[in-house]
Amino acid sequence: xxxxxxxxxxxxxxxxxxxxGSSAEREVSLTMSGPGVLAALREEGVDAHAFDPAERSLxxxxxxxxxxxxxxxxxxxxxxxxxxxxLECLGxxxxxxxxxxxxxxxxxxxxxxxxxxDQLPTPRWVSLRSDALTRERVITVPDELGLPVFVKPPHxxxxxxxxxxxxxxxxxxxxxxxxxxxxEVLCEEFIEGEELTCPVLGEGEAAFALPVVRIRAPEGxxxxxxxxxxxxxxxxxxxxxxxxxxxxxxxxxxRAYRLLxxxxxxxxxxxxxxxxxxxxxxxxxxxxxxxxxxxVPMSAAxxxxxxxxxxxxxxxxxxxxxxx
Length: 324
Hints:
- The chain is built from 12 helices and 13 strands.
- With 324 residues, it is α+β, with helices and mostly antiparallel strands.
- The chain folds into 3 domains: 9-95, Rossmann fold, CATH 3.40.50.20; 104-121 and 192-311, D-amino Acid Aminotransferase, Chain A, domain 1 (2-Layer Sandwich); 125-189, Dna Ligase, domain 1.
- Strands 8, 9, 10, 11, 12 and 13 form a 6-stranded antiparallel β-sheet that branches. A 4-stranded antiparallel β-sheet has the order 4-7-5-6.
């Protein structure tokens, strides 16, 4: 499917690119995603300005006459429905998913429950409250899920606070690390196989999946440092998967995206199980990275959509929940 890129940038009005914020992913948003989007929009002729909600009141968006916002924030406070709710109150259209879909997708455990309600495949998991992390309880998790286990905070992104546990002796430290970032800890069955990601553009039945990206990290270590600050991770797009399998994955991702009520854009992360090529959904990102390393621009480029045109189109889709 092709995007309608016949967009008048001047008709979009004065635009705020929301960047920075106060989450654990502030640095990536402030120094990479946000400036990249800002430069791309200006290149396309948009009257775009940087706006850091951690340093300025969102009320200034109204008083300074901003017509719409491109949300280039990541993590809590920017991707979880809170900024979206504030913009709804201010009446300023914004990019990406609305309040409810943003809040659900930011919570990996709730996301899993929604997907399972429609029988979508996701790894088995155990959730632990951070105020009840007794050694006796923690040590039973590998008995329930097997080893390895992936331990992470369910409300963080970019692999912050996440660990792969290969032995019982590592469980307590991994759980305590995740608990530093969240009130709950997600312990997830580790799916042995290839890591994939697949972006989606649009809304409802008009939404469509972009090409799948295959991620090849050293020893499977796709952590925060390797995601943003090294070149050791390799990406295949086109993925090299069998075309029928790629189409199956894209169809699954579209179902997952629509079930959560996402709009505008998103990116699902998956594991492809080695022994039977079965895909498993890990999470849905509703404000994906837009850095030089980022996967949505890479996939869009494989579909013939440039970075600047992608940013312009996403901005053109900005809207409010309450206008529906």
